[in-house]
Amino acid sequence: MLLKGKKILLGITGSIAAYKSIFLTRLLIKEGAEVKVVMTKAATDFVSPLVLSTLSKNNVVVDIATENVWANHVSLGRWADVFLIAPASCNTIAKMAAGLCDNLLMATYLSATCPIVVAPAMDEDMWHHPSTKRNLATIASYGNIVMDVRSGELASGLIGEGRMDEPENILNYLMENIFRGTALKGKKVLITAGPTFEPIDPVRFIGNRSSGKMGFAIARELYMNGAEVTLVSGPVKEVMEYNRVNLLKVQTAAEMLDACKDNISDSNIIIMNAAVADYTPTTVFGEKMKKSTDTLSMDLKKTTDILKYAGENRKDGQFIMGFALETNNEELNAIDKLKKKNVDCIVLNSLQIPGAGFSGDTNEVTIINKDETKIHFKLQSKTDIASHIVSYIISKL
Ligand code: CTP
Question: Could you count the other beta carbons within 10 Å of the beta carbon of residue 259?
Fold first, then answer.
């Protein structure tokens, strides 16, 4: 749910692209947003307010006043986290540039205090007209965020520029330009997550119970703070909903190492959260192993410690975070790991606490800094722990 808890005011104006507002509303609702719709009269010729009120689960407003009821355009603009005008017709863009106030959508626009994103839609010749270009430049100079148009088939039958962007791209645009923070803007982050599976034969492997939930939660939080994130993940059920997170899926410790090696040197922040297998079978059987003996032993060889590799090859200014799972002498072992692996801090999972550690949705951790100072975070959702961990990283940069 990319937009959980976000309030989006969708303004729809008279353009054939208004049909896309149906899909857009559905998408925004599916991603957890609360959506209210304001339409111009012209827009109602293209798409029915009933469809939009059903999808948005809110009344759609068109008129400034109906009978004795006055639509409060000021409260609409104050309610929203963003006012998205999609499609924005040539006419509405001209009105925005001039500051005209002849309908509810314009009154809402002129009184809105939230950021305003405009997704234009028009025929190619209108798009290229100097007055349109001037109006777009004018509304951008007022602080409105103007999306680009796409090239393709237009309502006129012509092929060219002027199509409104697709709902998925508008959603991504909102994420990028409105909802993502900037604390980690320009920072490259490499993070590992999940288990690794070390094959024994074509059907069996050595693995562990890591779900990847903690690592994915941290990756999401990093992305939402503006970082450029590469997430190297072992086999997990978790889904990364932000398609700008560079997700590299691997199976084995060796594959994880290779994926990390490609990214370690140019990352500003390295977070090794994966539960990497420490050992892998020396031989992988080509055929499924048959049971013949009562006991079975297997030769295993050490995998490369990726965190240690990063610590040994650290570049100036890199921040490296490791994780530790200990069952005894937790803090001492974690500090020992921190020093041996030459990292800036270790996040110690509290295995002793019910509800913390692998697979669940909650965790309790202690961050141990290289100067051995500690910060403890009590049992809470992995999402909240991720937010504390990322705030900690931001405070250390
Ligand atoms: N790690 C790694 N590559 C490995 C093994 C571990 O990058 N091959 C990283 C983990 O991602 C974690 C940290 O090392 O950040 C600690 O892993 P852990 O398994 O707890 O410790 P080990 O160093 O393997 O030591 P031990 O198993 O003896 O506790």
Answer: 20
| CA neighbor of 96 nearest in space, from 27, 143, 46, 26 | 143
pLDDT-derived band at 206, boundaries 50, 70, 90: very high
Answer whether 7-177 and 188-396 agree in fold: yes
| Gap between the Cα atoms of 243 and 184, Å rounded | 18
Ligand 1 in contact with 322 (CB < 6 A)?
yes
- String of DSSP letters for 237-306: S-----TTSEEEE--SHHHHHHHHHHHHTT-SEEEE--B--SEEES---SSPPPP-SSS----EEEPP-H
> What CATH code would you report for 7-177?
3.40.50.1950
What pLDDT, in 10s, does the model give residues 255-267? 999 999 999 999 9
**Ligand 1 atom nearest residue 333's Cα:** 29
Centre of ligand 1 to C-alpha 310, Å, is 12
Q: Is the CB of 257 under 6 A from ligand 1?
A: no
Longest dimension (CA), the chain: 88
In angstroms, what is the span from residue 275 Cα to ligand 1's centroid?
7
pTM for this prediction: 0.81
In the block, residue with structure tokens 């499609």: 87
Atom of ligand 1 nearest to the CA of 278: 8
- Chain position carrying tokens 């370690």: 264
Q: Domain extents for the chain?
A: 7-177, 188-396
- Looking at the structure, give the CATH architecture of the domain made up of residues 188-396: 3-Layer(aba) Sandwich (3.40)
Q: Note the pLDDT tens digit of each residue in 321-334.
A: 999 988 888 999 99
Q: Is 396 exposed, middle or buried (0-12, 13-18, 19+ CB in 10 A)?
A: middle
- Whether 306 lines ligand 1, by a CB cut-off of 6 Å, is yes
Question: Cα(75)–Cα(96) distance, rounded to whole angstroms?
Answer: 19
Q: Of the listed 208, 246, 268, 369, which one is catalytic?
A: 208
For helices 20-30 and 167-174, give the axis angle rounded to 10 degrees: 50
3-state helix, strand, coil in the chain (%, to 5): 35, 25, 40
- From 232, 276, 332, 346, the mutation candidate for ligand 1 (largest count of ligand atoms within 8 A of CB) is 276
208 in active site: yes
